[in-house]
Write a structure and sequence with these properties.
Number of helices of chain A: 11
Structural class of chain B: alpha/beta
Number of strands of chain B: 22
Structural class of chain A: alpha/beta
CATH class of the largest domain in chain B: Alpha Beta
CATH class of one domain in chain A: Alpha Beta
Radius of gyration of chain B: 27 Å
Oligomer: heterodimer
Shape of chain B: globular
CATH superfamily of one domain in chain A: Thiamin diphosphate (ThDP)-binding fold, Pyr/PP domains
Radius of gyration of chain A: 23 Å
Helix content of chain B: 25-40%
CATH superfamily of the largest domain in chain B: Thiamin diphosphate (ThDP)-binding fold, Pyr/PP domains
Number of helices of chain B: 21
Number of strands of chain A: 12
Strand order of the largest sheet of chain B: 11-10-12-13-15-14-20
Strand order of the largest sheet of chain A: 2-1-3-4-6-5-11-7
CATH architecture of the largest domain in chain B: 3-Layer(aba) Sandwich
Largest sheet of chain B: 7 strands, mixed
CATH topology of the largest domain in chain B: Rossmann fold
Helix content of chain A: 25-40%
Number of domains of chain B: 3
CATH architecture of one domain in chain A: 3-Layer(aba) Sandwich
Largest interface: A-B, 63 and 76 residues
Distance between the termini of chain A: 69 Å
Order of helices and strands of chain A: HEEHEHHEHEHEHHEEEEHEHHE
Distance between the termini of chain B: 32 Å
Chain lengths: 343, 639
């Protein structure tokens, strides 16, 4: 996929290096935090987009994830808990040419921010949302989040939680998102690929990034980040290819039988393979329900669709109105349609 | 319309000259009383009278027909002199059904005129309104009031028998019959209504013709049945020469925003969530897309506020509008705007509270919320319009101040101003003040919080500007650099700077003008929509030689710099408010003055009679020389 707005040959797209996107602020995440890898990956990908740095804006909410903008040498806005999508929407309507990224977390995006996330996805505002999912509230020091597993023991649930988690990818698909993907922060190459594709998409891109909080929820994603475990538990999704995973000597495929996903041994004779179609929402919805431990965790692009973009719609209407009625005449507006004159 | 009879030998009614009148239209919420009132107001304005209006409708969309709680009314006072209030007890009540009569009869004085649609005075409707028998037939009723019993339903059906409309559509045009009749009664021209009807129903000729026919039928009915011995006539009011139009408060706010944004040559991003009584601003602005108005109907109040903060960051003129409950929700995001020092305008069209309160009734109880309703020391510029047309100037000024001082501005309007209307002299665009704004461009000198010496405003550096890449946020920041800072001295400094920045707006406030004298016995201090009532009452009191004056405050934060001195030149200060004493508390705290309040929280504008009584009471010892009896309390609720 090529980049969306400006391409490499545009005279206004200078040759950036990763260093150009590193700000002058000391990074304050805990040593060993998964966020360092994500920051590094994003800083690696930005030069490849061919977009002038001054057009980039990183908008975040509140949480460890949301400290991100301070470490990027771009425009940035550290807003309030859960509300980054609302500011990003207003910003895009004011200036649709900006390249806007939203950085959020499982608490900021799916708890207090769930409603706004739903609506920005539905509206298809042209932004890229990076949701760092560490299944815990890190900044406030260890309460459970909407993605924590049922029964999770934390500071605010010493007897274990009594509520089931939500699946961020399934949520995004249900909100009619047009680009949805998942990656794991420890897999730099895969993460950069996914972020590149998300940034290239025109419309709202939603990326769930599994991220390890080594202080308050260490090891939450070991099954897909640990080198020896991930081969069994990770399903790399690719458009047009069958859904296949596992070590060389024990390849398996995921396919659908009677509307249910099943895992079967895979070789050249396996029938009814699920050839993944990333443009099809039904494929995406079905795939989104697969989760560890019953199934391998799917990572990669779940869905990529082109739909009308919110701010483009508004701007087209504005242009059409100006065409039809002419630019607004203020004197006429003030007078209105019924006046009388006093001599 | 012609004043001559149709050559049938009957004398034309004489015309009694009056100087003002109060008419109240009342009916079911589905009867079109608001439309009727609005059209009559247009006619009256077109004839050159000054006017003030009070739409009064229930919160429900279509309450069950014939119920008391479903009654909707529209009152208008019009005259040949300046009119400041919609009036007290009506001279004419139009009651479309028994429920309307039941609700509004208590407000009428002896001798008032009542026009009823007798076809609706059926057993069923009477019972729904709580009448055991028909009040119109009660002994003495027709002697107490001047009653016009008109078979509006039947007359309209007959007039429209061949119209091609359905029974339901025919029934719906009853209001226009009454409008015609009242227009005849006051010799007000029906041309504006005819014009409006022709424009509105251009694509529905049957409906258009039916409405015009019924309007004229009502107008001529008066002559035909020799309904009145005399009709009324009013001289036009004295206005400054110029071009005039009718305007409501919400319309004026919308126009003020667009005017300022057009002068600044910026697009408007208007983020809002529908809420009574502010929704009309969203509707109006949606009609002006060709002024580069970009409306965002957000998913909730918080999202609307977030959107305007983001839009301001992006360099747009950013505005939101809501009412009390919505402003409560917006608090945190408003704080973010104050900390990030971004220009934007927040409109609160106040309504009855607390909580859901009285959505369609007026109140001014959100002043403390506007001044203090956010965590931390979070100052806002707060402005309050005093009339529907003043909403234009206030909205314009709000935009101008927000971009000059790089800080949010709150406008406190209310339901009465929002829906009330009055004539407005259309300003000339060339007379409007400039709205200069400047985006930062020079990386060599730019720092996110480096302040202008005079205003303390920080630069407006919008994303897309090369070399000015920076990060802002809600965490406290170091002055000049804006870097996140927890430093103790820096925090105290930043709190004081944000406060001082708002304080410096005093230089923008013109000197206070006293209605009456600059010093004396009693001073009334008001803000917001109480202006009309206060002005009318104080003018009348002064005409009765009472030593009372009034000032009206339009800047609540910062307060005018000459306010303290003004208060001290009077022996007594009375603060009439539609709340329990909010400006009162501010004045007492800021100026150590022993001010008192006149407070009524009914969901209606203040009662002129009650306010006059309060003035009389406070001047009684100075006025009376030997009189010992209590001043007589005024009876009527509204006069």
């Amino acid at each position: 996929m090529t980049t969306a707005t400006e391409n490499e040959s545009s005279p206004s797209a200078p040759g950036y290096k990763k260093q150009d996107f590193v700000s002058d602020q000391d990074v304050r995440w805990c040593p060993g935090c998964g966020d360092y890898a994500i920051l590094s990956g994003v800083q690696k990908v930005m030069p490849e987009l061919g977009i002038p740095r001054e057009k980039m804006v990183f908008v975040s909410g509140i949480g460890c994830s949301s400290r991100f903008p301070y470490y990027m040498n771009t425009y940035g806005f550290h807003t309030i808990h859960g509300r980054a999508p609302t500011l990003a929407t207003g910003l895009k309507v004011a200036n649709p040419d900006l390249k806007v990224f939203i950085v959020t977390g499982d608490g900021d995006g799916l708890s207090i921010g769930g409603n706004h996330l739903l609506h920005i996805l539905r509206r298809n505002v042209d932004v890229t949302i990076l949701l760092f999912n560490n299944r815990i509230y890190g900044l406030t020091k260890g309460q459970y989040s909407p993605t924590s597993e049922l029964g999770k023991v934390t500071k605010s649930s010493p007897l274990g939680t009594v509520e089931r988690p939500i699946n961020p990818v399934a949520f995004a698909l249900a909100a009619a998102a047009t680009h949805v993907s998942r990656t794991v922060a420890t897999n730099m190459q895969h993460m950069c690929h996914v972020i590149r594709r998300a940034a290239a998409h025109v419309g709202t891109s939603f990326v769930e990034i599994y991220q390890n909080c080594n202080i308050f929820n260490d090891g939450a994603f070991d099954y897909v980040s640990d080198r020896s475990l991930k081969i069994e538990n990770e399903l790399q999704v690719e458009h047009g290819k069958p859904l296949v995973f596992g070590p060389i000597d024990k390849r398996r495929a995921v396919r659908i039988r009677a509307l249910r996903p099943e895992v079967v041994a895979y070789d050249e004779n396996t029938e009814d393979l699920w050839i993944y179609d990333e443009t099809d929402p039904t494929h995406a919805a079905a795939l989104s329900y697969l989760d560890y431990p019953q199934y391998p965790v799917p990572v990669g692009v779940f869905l990529e669709r082109k739909e009308s973009v919110y701010e483009s719609g508004l701007l087209h209407q504005e242009e059409a109105e100006i065409q039809k009625r002419g630019r607004g005449n203020l004197q006429k507006l003030l007078a209105g349609s019924q006046t009388w004159t006093v001599k | 319309m012609s004043e001559k009879s149709e050559g049938n030998g009957r004398p034309t009614p004489a015309r009694t000259k009056i100087s003002n009148a109060v008419v109240r239209f009342a009916g079911d919420s589905g009867d079109g009383m608001q439309l009727t009132g609005t059209q009559f107001a247009n006619e009256v304005a077109w004839a050159g009278n000054d006017l003030a209006t009070l739409p009064d409708f229930p919160a429900e969309i279509r309450a069950p027909r014939g119920t008391l709680f479903g009654v909707s009314s529209y009152q208008i006072q019009f005259g040949s002199a300046a009119i400041h209030t919609p009036g007290g007890s009506p001279d004419v009540l139009v009651a479309m059904n028994p429920a309307a009569l039941k609700v509004h009869l208590p407000d009428l004085r002896k001798g008032a005129t009542i026009i009823v649609n007798v076809n609706e005075f059926t057993k069923g409707n009477l019972s729904k309104a709580g009448y055991e028998s028909n009040p119109l037939d009660q002994p003495g009723f027709k002697q107490t009031y001047r009653l016009y019993e008109i078979e509006v339903g039947r007359l309209v059906r007959e007039a429209l028998a061949e119209s091609g409309l359905s029974a339901k559509e025919i029934d719906r045009s009853k209001n226009f019959f009454c409008l015609g009749f009242v227009s005849w009664l006051y010799n007000r021209p029906i041309e504006p209504t005819v014009e409006w009807t022709e424009a509105k129903f251009k694509k529905l000729p049957l409906v258009r013709d039916a409405n015009i026919k019924v309007l004229k039928a009502g107008y001529f009915y008066g002559d035909t049945i020799e309904a009145a011995i005399s009709t009324f006539d009013l001289e036009p009011a004295t206005y400054d020469p110029g071009l005039y139009r009718q305007i409501s408060g919400n319309q004026a706010l919308a126009l003020g925003i667009i005017a300022a944004a057009t002068q600044a040559d910026r697009p408007v991003v208007f983020g809002a969530y529908p809420i009574t009584p502010a929704s009309d601003i969203l509707h109006h602005l949606n009609g002006y897309r060709h002024f580069r108005v970009r409306p965002i109907q957000a998913e909730d109040e918080i999202a609307a506020m977030g959107a305007v903060v983001g839009a301001a960051f992006g360099g747009a003129i950013a505005v939101t509008a809501s009412s009390g409950p919505g402003i409560a929700l917006k608090g945190e995001a408003m704080g973010l705007a104050v900390k990030t020092e971004l220009p934007l305008v927040i409109i609160n069209v106040q309504r009855g509270g607390p909580s859901t309160g009285l959505p369609t009734k007026t109140e001014q109880a959100d002043l403390m919320q506007a001044l203090y309703g956010r965590n931390g020391e979070c100052p806002l510029i707060v402005l309050a319009p005093c009339t529907p047309s003043d909403c234009f100037q206030i909205a314009y000024e709000a935009v101008r101040l927000s971009v000059k001082y790089m800080t949010p501005v709150m406008i406190l309007s209310d339901g009465y101003l929002a829906n009330g209307s009055e004539p407005w002299k259309v300003p000339s665009v060339s007379d409007l003040p400039a709205v200069p704004l400047h985006f930062a461009t020079d990386p060599a000198t730019y720092q996110p919080y480096l302040r202008d010496e005079a205003t303390l405003a920080r630069p407006w550096a919008i994303p897309g500007t090369k070399g000015l890449e920076h990060r802002i946020g809600g965490l406290e920041g170091q002055n000049a650099t804006g870097n996140v800072s927890y430093d103790a001295e820096n925090h105290d400094l930043m709190v004081r700077l944000r406060e001082e920045k708002v304080r410096r707006v005093v230089t923008e406030i013109p000197p206070l003008e006293c209605l009456g004298d600059n010093e004396g016995e009693l001073l009334l201090v008001g803000w917001g929509s109480t202006y009309g009532t206060i002005r009318q009452v104080v003018e009348e009191a002064r005409a009765d030689k009472l030593d009372v004056s009034a000032i009206h405050i339009r800047h609540l934060s910062p307060l005018p710099s000459d306010l303290g001195a003004t208060l001290k030149r009077f022996k007594k200060v009375l603060v009439p408010e539609i709340n329990r004493g909010q400006l009162l508390r501010i004045l007492r705290a800021e100026f150590l003055v022993n001010a008192e309040g006149f407070n009524r929280v009914t969901g209606q504008p203040l009662d002129a009679g009650e306010l006059r009584q309060a003035i009389n009471d406070r001047l009684a010892p100075a006025r009376d020389e030997g009189a010992t009896k209590e001043p007589k309390k005024v009876k009527s609720k509204r006069s």
